[in-house]
Amino acid sequence: MTTPLTATTDYEELRARWGDVAWVELEPGVGAWLVMGYQEILTITRQEKLYSRDARNWRLFQEGVVPPDSGLGPMMFWRPNVIGADGGEHRRLRRPLDDGVAAIDQRRMRRSVEGMCADLIAGFRDKGSADLVGEYAAVIPMLAIADLFGLDVTQGHELLAALRALFGSAEDSQAGNKKFEEILGGIMHARQQDPAEDLTSRFLRHHDLNGDAEVLQSMVVMISAAQETTTTWISQTLRLVLTDPRFAGRMRGGRLGVDDALDEVLWRDPPMTNMPARYALRDTELGGRRIARGDALVLGLAAANADPSAHTGEAVIELGNRAHLAWSAGPHACPAPVPARLITRTAVETALHLLPDVRLAVAPDELTPHPSPWTRCPAALPVLFGDH
C-alpha cells in the first residue's frame, strides 16, 4: 500500500518499511520517490546530469497521469525560471537572485523588521491573546519581503493569501498562483515606468534577465520561497520555545540563545519538510531502489536530517552543528539563508522580549500542521499573555 505524502507523514515508519528511498503518493494515482537518506539527497543534488530539476522530464505528466489542472501544478510543473533549469541556464538565472540578496542592507532590514514586529504585537497585546502564526509569523516575512520589492502593506497581505493557496497544493492552488503572479506583474510594470531602489527595479535592469517573463519569474521564486520558509521557521521556533520545557528553560536561563533554537528547528522541523522535485534522466539505482527514467524524486529534507548517519550521537558535539539539509544542497541550495535567519531571529527575539509571559493556550498535542505535502507549519499557535 502506497503512503500518502502529507504534513503528518511518519518518516520513521516509512524508513523501517522501505529504507532510505520510499514510494509515496502525492495525490490519488500520482506516485513519486521520497528520498530520506542524507547521502542519497547529496547524491541527487550534486548530479544535475542524472537528476534534473526540469519538470518537463516528469513521465507521469508526459503520459497524462497528472492533469494540467492538478493542485500539484504550482509547486511541481515546469516554469521558465531558475527552479526549472539546470547547468549553465540555471547559473544565469541564479545570478540575479544572488546579486539581489547581496544588495540587501541588513541593518536597515533588521530595524524595519523590528518595527513591524513591535507594531503587530501592539495590535493584539491589549486583548491578552493571539495566534502567533496567523497574526504574527505569517505576516512578518511577507511585509519584509514586500518592502524589499516595493510593494505596499495591502499588496503584501494579498500576496500572503495567494501564497497560502499555492503551497497548499489543493483545489485553490492554481487560482492562488494566478493571483500571485498578477500582483507581481503589477509592481513590475509600475517600476518599468518609475524605477526605484528596490529588488523589482534591480531585476528589471539585471543583464542576465531577458524580458518581462524572466523578471516576473525571478520575483515569483524569491518571494514565494522566502515567505513560506521563513513563516514556518518563525512558527516552529516559537512552538519549540512554548512547548519544550527542556529547551525553553535553558534558553530563557541564558545557557542557550535564540540562534540555538533556530538551529534546533532546522534539524528537527526544517522550513521545507519535503522539497519538490528532481526527475531521473535515465534508469538508475538509488538507495537500493530501481529508479526509472522520468520518475519524480522528492527530497525528504526533514527525514534526511533525522538520518542516524548525519549525527554523532554526542550532545556536546551536536550543539552548533549546521550540517543539516534544511536549505537543500548543491547548485539549487537556498540563496538567502542569511536574510532568512535575520528575519526569523528578529521576530522570535522581539516576541519573547515584548511578551515575556507568553504561554500556549492549548495542549501541545492539539497543535496541528497546515495541510501541505511540502511544509508542516503549525496551522495556528494560540497563546495567552498578561493577566489572561
From TrEMBL:
Q: This protein is called what?
A: Cytochrome P450
Listed InterPro entries: Cyt_P450_B, Cyt_P450_sf
Q: Origin, by domain of life?
A: Bacteria
Q: Name one GO molecular function term.
A: oxidoreductase activity, acting on paired donors, with incorporation or reduction of molecular oxygen
Concerning Gene3D superfamilies, the annotation shows: Cytochrome P450
Report the source organism. Answer: Nonomuraea endophytica
Q: What family does this belong to? A: Belongs to the cytochrome P450 family.
